[in-house]
UniProtKB/TrEMBL annotation:
This is ROK family protein. It comes from the Bacteria. InterPro entries: ATPase_NBD, ROK, ROK_cs. Pfam families: ROK. Belongs to the ROK (NagC/XylR) family. Gene3D superfamilies: 3.30.420.40. It comes from Candidatus Gemmiger excrementavium. PROSITE patterns: ROK.
Amino acid sequence: LCRTVAKENNVPFSEVRYVGIGTPGSVNFTTGFVGYNTNFGYYDWNLGTDLEALLGCKVYVENDANAAAFGEYIAGGAKGYKDAVIITLGTGIGSGIILGGKILRGFNFAAGEMGHTVIVKGGRKCNCGRQGCWERYASSRALTEDTKAAMQEHGDTLMWKLVPDIDHVNAKTSFDAMAKGDALAKQVVENWMDYVACGIANVVNTFEPEVICIGGGVSNQGETLLAPVRARVQKETHDITGGRVPEIRACELRNDAGVIGAAALESSI
């Protein structure tokens, strides 16, 4: 794939200085070692070393959320800020933290896993082994699960008319039904946004970045999502921040964020 990309862009591979890769899981940025991945199930892989042997050039391996965050920082929604947190609401919740223009990696390269901060003690079981993690309540997958549960309890909801069957329900279903005036869908979305804002308030109180960018497919809802989340975060953090909360906006680069961030990893050192 690396050689193909170079060829398609008319770049001799011998002129490639390094390759940048973003991958889910715990990544040692210094060595390129991937320790674990809770969602894909692979462990203990010397990805950087293996690829360097195959490609004959330097390979930087970074956590995919960090790579995407760095992409947004240098070319997207967080461009022009020194301190930023990028949150991706997807199957789980990915997050990348940029402080002073540098990726916060932690001494064990596992910093920034905001999706695995607990917001409900003894709550839903997470893939990481804990209970009550933020991503079990505020990810797109969580919204889909909550939407399905509500539909199965209420056969008269408009949401049933928007999909062929329960297997076609996704995070957009409840937003679409809410826009058409469905009260149950509105309740599902409002409850979900409460959890989204709860976690973001924790981010604000912990890091107080200048900007928080929200990505993932659900961010396509725009101000329908962002405005209520801003209001909730403002309310939950007012007494601590004095009412000055970070700008909360949508990511701009979408699927290109990780690619751009990975390509620029050398400048993150």
